[in-house]
Amino acid sequence: MTSAFDDIAPAGGGRVTAVLGPTNTGKTHYALERMLAHRSGMIGLPLRLLAREIYDRIVKARGARDVALVTGEEKIIPPNARYWVATVEAMPLEREVDFLAIDEIQLAADRERGRIFTARLLHARGKSETLLLGSDTMRPILTRLFRNIQFLSRDRLSRLTYAGQKKVSRLPRRTAIVGFSSDTVYGIAELIRRQRGGAAVVLGALSPRTRNAQAELYQSGEVDFLVATDAIGMGLNMDIDHVAFAAQRKFDGRAARNLTPAEMAQIAGRAGRHIRDGTFGVTSDCPPPDEETIAAIEEHAFDPVRALQWRSEVIDLSSPSALLRSLERPAPRPEFVRSRMEADEDVFRRLIRSDDVRRLASGGAGLATLWDVCQIPDFRKIAIDDHARLLGDIYLILMDRGRLSDDWLRPRLERLDRTDGDIDAISARIAHVRTWTFLSHRPQWLENAAYWQERARAIEDRLSDALHEKLTQRFVDRRTSALMRRLKDEAPLMAGVTEDGEVIVEGQFVGRLLGFDFIVDPRASGAEAKSLRAAGERALRPVLAARAAALANADADELKLNDDGSVVWRSAIVAKLAKGPAPLRPDLVIRGLDQISPNMRGRVEDRLKDFIAAKIEGLLGPLIALQNLANAAGEDALKGVTKGVAYRLVENFGATSRAQFGDELKQIEQTERAKLREAGMRFGEYTLFVPALLKPAPARMLLLLWALWSDRDPATAPPPKAGLVSLEVNESLPHAYYYAAGYRPSGARAVRIDMLERLANLIRSARGEANMREGFEAGSQMMSIVGCSGEDFEGIMRSLGFRKNVVKRKVEANPSEPPAAESAPEPTAQDAASAEQAEATPQVEPAPTAEAPTEGANPEPAAPAETAAPESIAPAVSEAAPTDPPKPAEGEPVADAYTATTDASQAPAPQETPAVEDEVEVTLWRPAPRKPHAKPKRDQKADGKPGPRGKGKRGKPQKGARRDDRGPRRSDPPMMHEPRHRKTADPNSPFAVLAGLKTQLADDKPKDAAKQPEKTE
Fold first, then answer.
1. Greatest C-alpha distance within the chain
2. What gap in Å lies between CA 677 and CA 626, rounded to an integer?
3. DSSP assignment, residue 638?
4. Is 528 in contact with 486 (CB distance < 8 Å)?
5. Confidence at residue 643, expressed as pLDDT on a 0 to 100 scale
6. Which of 77, 646, 649, 697 is the most buried (most CB within 10 A)?
7. Which of 106-120, 300-314, 822-836, 989-1003 comes out lowest in average pLDDT?
8. What's the first-to-final CA gap in the chain, in angstroms?
9. Is the dihedral of CA 251, 253, 258, 260 positive or negative?
10. pLDDT digits 0-9 by tens, 348-402
11. Which carries the bigger pLDDT value, residue 942 or residue 612?
């Protein structure tokens, strides 16, 4: 071929053919077929990534021994390579080959790389054939440059159409999103990871190995999105269906400018492969192109290229000034435009100002070496001064020593062998390593070039792999991506559930299965969470069916009812109790059975309902029996008031105050009482209750049912700690809560019902032994029973209808010889001091194990009136004073019975020194005065005047009149007064035996003791 200007283009050579057309016309594939048809060949490509792809294809066809790869940082050169694949800048033109091809020749008009493509276009030739591949816009200028060039036009194999503007979250699968800065690329990739599962990232700044790995990530289908710069527009063959522009402006090295329609078409042309159509569009953040640009891209009609970038390839090395003049040589033809000053020229101008460099590079070999050093690319992309400083150091070492020593190179390279840090840190290390990799391929500059080539390659590979992993971790959610792909394919999903409930779908953790509830991985959100839920629910259908069958056949020990009403199976909640039609019949809400068949759902519901019914009947058997007794009909059924008492006890969850019934209980016959006792109910002095329900397990069940019936959250009414005999009253909880738990509110504390009845028993015994006018003394045993003292105990006593009476008593003491301890059964002074100490230091909720009912035992309350055994009464009665104490005159302080009366045989001998009398305060308790009724009307005399109010002739109360502190009242609590009449006791009742025993024991008591209040039921 003959050039139109012989001083630039070489003479001779084979035919030159320009294969022109839009993207996806098979130009590159045609060039490879033509190259492999020759004995040797070379192809220059615009990108390292594309060069690696073509290299792999030829290796697969011809073998690795015949194929060489040459790029700026990567060189694979077998000894007898026949086919050479290289980037356009790195083409080894010194090697003669039969075939030569240059791809994407329209880049000769590019301001950044154009002059290299123009040089190859003019000077690179094959001995037999040369192909120039590119856009049809190059036809006019090629026609003007070359006389005998041949043209081969190729049409696009598929259609390319505009698809409009779409949000990133709505882009279709197999989409490439194009941005023009690393910040834009990373931001879009992060957004896609959160919403669509992840994306591969391709930037020109990445190392070839990293870009290859990221491209394979997309090609393999592991991710459906690719976020890249315009580098993908240069012949990168990938399976892309849609190209979306995230921007239409780019920085070309000097300023930001709009993309030309031809540049947009080059990028958009990556959509659609072979005969599959493609689409292009823009994202929501990018303004749509105008109609003319869209039409030009779809029809592949663009303005022709008018000029190519050019710089002289003939360098004058006679002197620095001559070299600069040769670089400034004007373009020889109007088809060329002088390219702007590039980095090598800029660095040369900076270095030549140095005296040391100018002295060594005055001309000849020194100047040639300086120019070669200036060709080292600025991979680091740092300030031009720093790059010039590094190249100046290299040049001075080369001129001084001839080569770069291992000692100089090793620390600079080894410090980069680190994979820690983020994406930017690793990318910066790779950029530095690429500089040393480029140097390692200059064997004349290094002492041990082969070693440093391998060493630099190994470090770069490790950093590239680390960068790929960092990019994948940051921008790819493998789990979501894989699941979304399988969901769209409608293929069966492989799923499993571990023993801990972890749900694994297609090898990815998507959440946990708790019972029948699928809980999505909490780390997922937005679209990712929706995808995981869809995949989990779809994959778990057979697993849930198998679980439902297992639950329907579960044994009772596999199920558990928690205090909050939740039913647990295999450590997971499967149902929860809710308010039902009756207090003892809660409803059951079963969770997570939407994916189960109706038949299996019914089986599960029946099993759980049977479990709850058995649980309630097992724990609350006496209350269920009482309810059945109240609902029964017939001759043996409960009647009248008795039926009402049973109903009231069931409605109050097993315990209720006796005071609310008033005189109604007196109307119950003994036969009816016997029926209630046989059902497990007890008539306590203060409470009607069922002793069996006071154990912790039944009490917890009663509290749960009470909370559900009261429309309360069970968590707001937790059961008291097991074993407490009393606890502090919470004002936010009603009294019904405490009765359901087996406690009776008494002042500031709630006392367990059986302990309160035992306290009543002790009070009854103490009242029988004490003087009724002053009251009785509360011993430490009473305080121990209720687990408190001081103000809390006083509050309990006041709630029971007693008032405190503090009296002073004289105690005789012999200072010279104190009496022996056994001379008096219980010295009053010690008792008073103990009582005062107990009041000063109250005990808070002790839990004596001997008094608390346990799960394994069913202790009967020791103190209730009807159940107290005779043996428990005899010791208390025997402790009474054997002789009647002298009754003091009215108005005198009452002495303690124990200290005022002693046995004559045990009385100490009279002492010569007179006894000293001490006074101590003693706290006594007696029934509180009754509140008066409405004012009685005065008696009317015969003359119509009112008579004296309730008095006789001497102002004394009339017969039958009441005093404020005597006589019974209906509002008084039980046992605070003497009953008005006695009822005939049931001979079968244990009270008959108890009453006989008490009569026998009370024969020696004072007559006043016989008037103590009768124990009520």
1. 162
2. 10
3. -
4. no
5. 87
6. 646
7. 822-836
8. 130
9. negative
10. 999 999 999 999 999 889 999 999 999 998 888 878 899 999 999 999 999 999 9
11. 612
Residues 6+ apart with CB under 8 A from 615: 561, 701
Using one digit for the tens of pLDDT, what is the confidence trace for 842-899? 333 333 333 444 343 333 333 333 333 333 333 333 333 333 433 333 333 333 333 3
Q: Is 91 helix (H, G, I), strand (E, B) or coil?
A: coil
Contact 324, 349 (CB under 8 A): yes
Alpha carbons 402 and 996: distance in angstroms, whole number = 129
Report the candidate in 1013, 1016, 1006 with the shortest Cα–Cα distance to residue 767.
1013
Question: 873-876 long-range CB contacts below 8 Å, 24 or more apart?
Answer: 873/765, 873/994, 873/997, 873/998, 873/1001, 874/997, 874/1001, 876/762, 876/765
Angstrom distance (rounded) from CA 397 to CA 393 = 6
CB atoms within 10 A of CB 648: 14
Q: Mean pLDDT over residues 514-523, rounded? A: 75
What are the structure tokens assigned to 99, written together?
A: 């075939």
Q: Residue range 188-200: average pLDDT?
A: 84
Strand order in the sheet with 566-569: 559-561, 566-569, 572-582, 585-590
Query: Is residue 578 within 8 Å of residue 588, measured between CB atoms?
Result: yes
Cβ contact 714:563 at 8 Å: yes
Phi/psi at 186 (nearest 5 deg)? -65, -40
d(CA 602, CA 462): 60
**What is the distance between the alpha carbons of residues 136 and 150, in angstroms, rounded to a whole number?**
13
**Cα separation of 68 and 79, whole Å?**
9
Q: Which of 127-131, 204-208, 935-939, 978-982 has the highest mean pLDDT?
A: 127-131
Return the number of other C-beta atoms located less than 10 Å from residue 50's C-beta: 21
Q: What single-letter amino acid sits at 933?
A: H
Structure tokens at 106: 């329209």
Q: How far is CA 410 from CA 398, 792, 794, in A?
A: 16, 85, 90
User: Per-residue pLDDT for 169 more than 50?
Assistant: yes
pLDDT-derived band of residue 479, with 50, 70 and 90 as boundaries? low
- Pair of tokens at residue 7: 């001083």
**Closest to 737 (Cα-Cα) out of 693, 699, 686, 691:** 699
Which has the higher per-residue pLDDT, 127 or 866? 127
Residues contacting 715, CB < 8 A, separation 6+: 564
Return the half-sphere exposure (C-beta side, CA atoms, 13 A cut-off) of residue 260: 15
232, 292, 754 from 289: Cα distances, Å = 20, 8, 88
- DSSP string spanning 171-218? PPSSEEEE-SSHHHHHHHHHHHHHHHSB-EEE-TTS-HHHHHHHHHHH
Tell me, what amino acid is at 565?
Answer: G
Element containing residue 308 per DSSP (H, E) = strand 308-310
Q: Is the pLDDT of residue 109 over 70?
A: yes
% the chain with pLDDT above 70? 75
Q: What is the Cα–Cα distance from 70 to 73, expressed in whole angstroms?
A: 8
**Beta strand pairing call for 495-497 and 502-505:** antiparallel
Q: For the chain, what percent of residues have pLDDT higher than 90? A: 38
CA distance 263 to 973: 101
DSSP 734: -
* Residue 812 to residue 902: CA distance in whole angstroms: 13
CB-facing half-sphere around the CA of 1012: CA atoms within 13 A: 21
Q: Please work out, in degrees rounded to the nearest 5, the angle formed at the alpha carbon of residue 487 by the alpha carbons of 482 and 492.
A: 100
Q: Report in angstroms the alpha-carbon separations of 55 from 25, 75, 146, 224, 684.
A: 20, 12, 30, 25, 99
CA–CA distance, 688 with 622 (Å, rounded to integer): 14
